[in-house]
Write a structure and sequence with these properties.
Elements (H helix, E strand, L loop, with lengths): L1 H4 L9 E4 L10 E6 L12 E6 L2 H14 L3 E4 L2 E2 L2 H7 L6 H11 L3 H9 L3 H12 L2 H7 L4 E5 L6 H9 L17 E7 L6 E7 L9 H16 L2 E7 L6 H9 L6 E4 L9 H4 L5 E2 L5 H16 L13 H8 L2
Parallel strand pairs: 1-4, 6-8, 6-9, 9-10, 10-11
Antiparallel strand pairs: 1-2, 2-3, 4-5, 7-8
Bound molecules: guanosine-5'-triphosphate and magnesium ion.
Length: about 325
């Protein structure tokens, strides 16, 4: 900032006023510093306007620095909560997530719900439903959602993990029970400005009669199942899944994709009858199309991404407050 303004400029602690028209933080950022009023006609010498075309990372770095110097932020006369700007906003892991939090700088969730409470019931219901449609996106963008690969031993989970990351990150082996840890890697889903980051996690495929280290691996997998955004269940076409694995599938939301893998081997069980919903089929020659189909399925469930300035509930407490309207 000193370099931008000239090395000798004495910068006093002041106030950052966010320009409401510059919320596309992934494209540019406009910071205005004012010692006076930002009204039209104010003495232009009291205003410094900085346009940074450096992307979200630059915006985040500048904001962190300014906060450390004791600057405060406001937007349209309303103070921006330090909580939102310093923690949540700065943790945005994609331009799309930054956009969601930037929408908040123009008006908080609580204030918006307050306005809704004042509406006539029919109107309120309509707005509630409109906001509710973005709930899933809020879950995805508020942090880094976990996309877990789970299923029976030796079904090809680690092979799929490596294929998705396009590198040999974990050992895939014909001996059942190869993976013992949760192995994670960031993975981008979606394209361009609408892409977001998930944590792809490979897990152990051991379930029943687990002892010693196997038991610990099963416990870790089960804990991961409870916190996963989506689980991709991978089954072996030549080996029927156990009742415990099918019960674990039934315990999770019905959005979890199912994959019948190793379809190049002779099928020994009627997957259409045993699996609870339609599944994708895969074998080594169809790996690329399987990954594309999985991504399509995951994105298709979410629907179109929230537009610029769309308020989205980003925590369970906010979703609960919306439901309670
Ligand atoms: N025939 C065939 N073999 C496959 C396919 N996908 C993976 N494999 C092989 O199946 C074996 C097991 O694959 P992994 O990826 O290690 O399976 P996993 O589910 O991670 O196994 P665990 O970690 O032991 O639970 C390896 O030898 C793979 O090369 C497939 O589509 N067809
Ligand atoms: Mg494995």
């Amino acid at each position: 900032m000193r370099r931008l303004l000239g090395a000798n400029t004495a910068l006093e602690v002041g106030k950052v006023v966010l320009n409401r028209n510059s919320f596309a933080f992934d494209e540019c950022l406009c910071w205005c510093r004012s010692t006076g009023d930002m009204q039209e006609g104010a003495d232009p010498r009291t205003v410094v306007e900085i346009h940074l075309h450096g992307g979200f990372g630059v915006a985040a770095a500048l904001r962190t620095w300014l906060h450390k110097q004791g600057w405060t932020e406001e937007c349209e006369g309303q103070a921006v909560s330090a909580d939102l700007s310093q923690q949540t906003f700065l943790q945005a892991t994609s331009p799309l997530a930054a956009r969601i939090f930037a929408a908040r700088l123009g008006g908080s969730w609580d204030r918006h719900l307050q306005k809704l409470r004042a509406l006539a019931p029919a109107q309120r219901q309509g707005e509630k439903e409109r906001l509710r449609a973005w709930n899933d996106w809020g879950k995805v963008l508020a942090g880094v959602p976990k996309l877990l690969l789970a299923g029976p031993p030796n079904a090809g989970k680690s092979t799929l993990f490596n294929a998705w990351l396009q590198e040999r990150r974990v050992t895939a082996n014909e001996a059942a029970g190869t993976t013992r840890d949760l192995v994670t890697a960031p993975l981008r889903l979606g394209q361009g400005a609408e892409a977001f980051v998930v944590t792809l996690t490979d897990s152990a495929g051991v379930w029943e009669q687990a002892k010693g280290i196997d038991q610990a691996a099963v416990a870790m997998t089960k804990a991961a199942l409870a916190s996963a955004w989506r689980v991709i269940w991978v089954f072996d076409a030549a080996e029927a899944p156990s009742a415990q694995i099918l019960a674990a599938v039934a315990d999770r939301p019905a959005h979890d994709p199912l994959v019948l893998n190793r379809c190049d081997r002779a099928a020994t069980w009627p997957a259409e009858k045993v699996l609870p919903r339609p599944f994708l089929r895969a074998e080594p020659s169809s790996q690329a199309s399987l990954l594309a189909a999985l991504e399509r399925q995951l994105l298709g469930q979410l629907g179109p991404a929230p537009p610029i300035n769309q308020l989205v509930a980003t925590s369970q407490a906010e979703r609960d407050a919306l439901e309670a309207l």
